[in-house]
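User: Before I run my own analysis I want an independent prediction to cross-check against. Here's the chain; please return only the structure tokens and, at the end, one sentence I can use as a sanity check.
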Amino acid sequence: MHEKAPMLKAEIRPKLGSRYSKRARSAGKLPAVVYGHKQEPVAINLEAKEAIDLFEAGEKVFRMDFPGTSNKDENQMVLLKDLQFDYLGTNIIHADLERVDLDEKVRTRVRIDLTGEAKGLKIAGAILIHPTNEIVLECRVRDIPESIAVDIADLDVGGVITADKVKLPGSDMRMITDSHAVIAQIVEQKEVVTAEASVVAAEGAAEPEVIGEKERAEKAAAAAPAGKGGAAKAPAAGAAKPAAKK
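Assistant: Structure tokens:
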């Protein structure tokens, strides 16, 4: 891999701070930092277009040239560890690079490529879920793969492929990602039949009117024969009863 690793040309950043980083980006540079191997971190600028094109192509290991620096910093190997994006999450504005040896073991993220056509997708309403599109593994720098292929041809509805089922390309590689992380899954979308029509019908149905005690009392009083002094009146609701004679 070291013979094929692309070269990144770097220059030492003379001044630090967000203001100077913004100026560097305006001039077509990408601010970055190189650290590791018990050496002091070095703030650098990369050629933005060249570096970003390589990052977006999936390259992770680079040879780096520091023109004008000490011999120990020339043509060293570095591993892309992290990228920082702008507030919109679209443009790369900073890179973290770690000094490495080709035979040392590191932890890095590797892209997952799904291959084959899942048989479960032939069923109407079935969809493929791919929540984990990269994994973290531990391996030697020289063995870092560009991607790992996962065959989903036999994946049926209800089937799932988790991280522990991913076959790593090297026997001495170790999966760091949670073994239960879902790499691919086929699920079936089911129509949810709402009972809206039934609810509307139920809400519109008239309920029988319940006649209360007050209404019954008033009707009974109206039908009773009138006594002296005119028609009998129904007692007012809540009227007190006469006291019992002793």
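Sanity check: Confidence is low (pLDDT under 50) at residues 191-195, 227-243.
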